[in-house]
Specification:
Length: about 270
């Protein structure tokens, strides 16, 4: 059966894994206590969108060349995305120059890349890909105006925990099913329910059947800090029947996640 856009609608709408989501600081301001906060906008970079399209429709999607426009100090790039012969177009924009803190004007080196990436993601959203990111609840986080590399001063584990919390608030699964699994389920539900070949293949998510056993104190911590429902979700994520079957690496990964969630909820 040939691939069609209609057959891809459900899997295109599947959320990206929380690890792939970044946070863009916007509207930085000080609160009443003099602490910096910013609106943290969830987004996925262009490569994440491309990876999803290649997983679902390799060779069946393209981005025809379009000419950019200049309006004053802005570069405007129209981007067309074609999936299975259906085209959608949207626009990305970026400033060509900006002023430094000292009031000095300087050229923006990545204007074209920034504008194209924005237009590409917006065009993909018209197909449903990444569209859910626009509807997630608003998130305000600490902001560091002196840091250029990490303006939102949180760890990667904290970032992932925040994204999972936003997913749950929006009624999305905190650990979305891989689109390949969803696609297989749509075409052959019986085979997908038994298709272990589609399980994650990374070492941190493999079935916990290794020779090493989880430390008893760590296992007790995991059971104490999680509800029965959370334990079931964790077992499903790591593809084990019980927390006792986790590998030491998986147990440490889950422990780090629990600690990060505790920091987020107490913030």
């Amino acid at each position: 059966m040939s691939l069609s856009l209609a057959s891809l609608q459900d899997v295109l709408r599947c959320p990206f894994p929380p690890e792939k989501i970044r946070l863009l600081p916007k509207l930085p301001r000080k609160n009443e206590q003099g602490q910096w906060k910013c609106l943290a906008l969830p987004y996925a970079d262009k490569r994440t969108y491309e990876d999803r399209l290649n997983e679902l429709a390799f060779g069946e999607w393209s981005t025809p060349l379009t000419a950019p426009l200049v309006a004053g100090n802005k570069l405007i790039v129209p981007v067309a995305v074609v999936i299975c012969g259906v085209s959608r177009t949207d626009y990305g924009e970026a400033f060509l120059s900006s002023l430094s803190r000292k009031g000095e004007k300087h050229e923006e080196e990545n204007s074209a890349t920034e504008a194209y990436s924005q237009g590409f993601r917006r065009a993909c959203a018209q197909f449903g890909l990444g569209r859910y990111l626009y509807d997630l609840p608003k998130l305000w986080l600490p902001y560091d105006p002196t840091s250029g590399s990490r303006p939102i001063p949180i760890s990667d584990a904290e970032r992932i925990a925040w994204i999972e919390k936003l997913y749950m608030q929006a009624g999305l699964p905190p650990r979305p099913e891989h689109p390949a699994v969803a696609k297989q389920a749509a075409s052959d539900p019986e085979q997908a329910s038994h298709g272990s070949s589609l399980a994650p293949s990374s070492s941190s998510h493999q079935t916990g059947t290794s020779q090493q056993r989880v430390d008893t104190q760590l296992l007790a911590f995991l059971r104490r800090e999680t509800t029965r429902e959370q334990q079931q979700k964790a077992c499903h994520f790591y593809h084990v029947e019980d927390l006792a079957h986790l590998t030491p690496e998986q147990a440490l990964h889950l422990s780090d996640y629990i600690e990060a969630r505790k920091q987020v909820t107490s913030a």
